[in-house]
Request: fold
Amino acid sequence: MSNEYLTIKEEVIAQIEVEKSKFICYLYPCDNEEDAKSILKDIRKQHPKANHHCYAYIYNNGTYYKSSDDGEPGGTAGMPILNVLKAKNFNNIIAIVVRYFGGTLLGRGGLIRAYTHATEKGIENAQIYAEGFKRIYSITVDFSFYDIVNQRLNHPSLKIIDREFNEKVTVKVILLDEFDFNNIVDLTNGNAIINDEGESLYTYRV
Reply:
């Protein structure tokens, strides 16, 4: 969905080696310029002898982004990192790839591939979350219909986020894709009460 982005909640580290050059990728949650600067400062302190600290970050629903080659040939490091983040629809994230030169020049193509691969490796190691404004629905039924309704709501187009057990059972779901709630009404012979709770910002594990 166009209003949904991917993000992370914690630090991720990955490393690859190409022609004896080490590329260490760091991913961090980041939703503003000051956080980005602070994270970059910390990474530079951790790796004072590295040859390059290339990076890209993106936030504000993907509308603000920045990248840096940090001394690598123009367009061979920061932009490939950023392209990976954009292609995978990430938001509120910074990716920093630290390079320790191994003695062999990789050329433009080799550098682009290396920085791309390092970033992709970091994402492979990450626990990813989807974040966006989602429509919430509540479904209330008698206890006698709970099992069949719960089974029907375990559907790829929905994500159950809450269950309340009182005189009746109310199940709240996020609408991820198109779903016919009339089917729930039919399953319960009209017993189910479906309420549109409106949109809410929600984050869930992918």
